[in-house]
Amino acid sequence: MKMVVTGGAGFIGSHLVNGLVNQGYEVHVIDNLTTGDPGRLHSEAILHVADVNSQQTTAYISVLKPEVVFHLAAQAEVQRSIQEPRLDADANVMGTINILDACRKAGVRKIVFASTAGVYGDLERSQLTEDDPVNPVTFYALSKAAGEQYIRLYYHFFGLQYTILRYGNVYGPGQTAKGEGGVVAVFGERLYQGAPLPIYGDGLQTRDFIYVKDVVDATLASILHGDQSVLHVSTGTDHSVNTLVDLIRRLHPDRIDVDYLPAKIGDIRHSCLNNEKTRERLRWSPLFSLEEGMEETYRHWLGTPVSQSDSSK
């Protein structure tokens, strides 16, 4: 059975590709390699170098006729989306429409879409549910919310099945310092450089950090489950950035300094995603605590510099 992963040479995408290959699927990757790294890819994955918003991508999907398309390719940098909203929309909105139209014409059964907790904006909730209002406060989050709505309408008009996965802050081996949700990778890069860890704001901002292996398991479960659902891929637990630093200090033998810097424009103060619906619909639950995931990630840092660009969120 054929599967296509857009953005498959990125951080999450390459982990997903490994999972798909290990389950016996024929896996095709569509990635423009602007920030993706073909060296991340499993040797059995087939790479097609193309932009998601191109006729070349349409042609690949038309010929391949995959069972499922996992759409992870995106312009994933929040600050860049603020500076260049048109570029962000071209990649994330028009690119998604191009993928949807290609899926419709090729008879693809289902699209699995990587969305973000950022679509909620800065709602004052201790824990967000999928029924909470969407109120993006950055162009990146807005482009993801728009992509979600296009996906719903493609199902309404054309019957293209979908699962929309709103990821928490994903981290793990192979993540890089570039892109939204990369605070763990930024810290890893700074440790490698022997530089202070940068914290934007007071460090009390919280995130729902989820380990990439748990994200892959949830995404793989979407092949057979979660049709026409919007689901949180999260731990349901929040941790502050200061807590993350304390954890890294326990793992790292050398002194770690911290630089507190002005908060970034568009940063969300608190984010924690309820995952009860996901546990039920996907028959999935996260297996890694932050401590366990960070220990694996730290071991990876010891052997591999974290310095390349990330192409997915």
Provide a descriptive summary of the structure in words.
The chain folds into two domains: 2-169 and 211-233, NAD(P)-binding Rossmann-like Domain (Rossmann fold), CATH 3.40.50.720; 170-208 and 237-272 and 287-303, Alpha-Beta Complex (UDP-galactose 4-epimerase, domain 1), CATH 3.90.25. 39% of the residues lie in helices and 18% in strands. The chain contains ten helices and 13 strands. The protein has a seven-stranded parallel beta sheet, sandwiched between helices. Strands 7-10 form a two-stranded parallel sheet. It has a two-stranded parallel sheet with strand order 8-13. Helix 1 (11-22) packs across helix 7. The longest helix is centred in the first third of the chain and has 22 residues, at 85-106. Residues 305-313 have low confidence and may be disordered.
The major β-sheet equals:
7 strands, parallel
Based on the coordinates given, report the CATH architecture of the largest domain: 3-Layer(aba) Sandwich
Low-confidence stretches: 305-313
Number of strands: 13
Structural class: alpha/beta
CATH topology of the largest domain: Rossmann fold
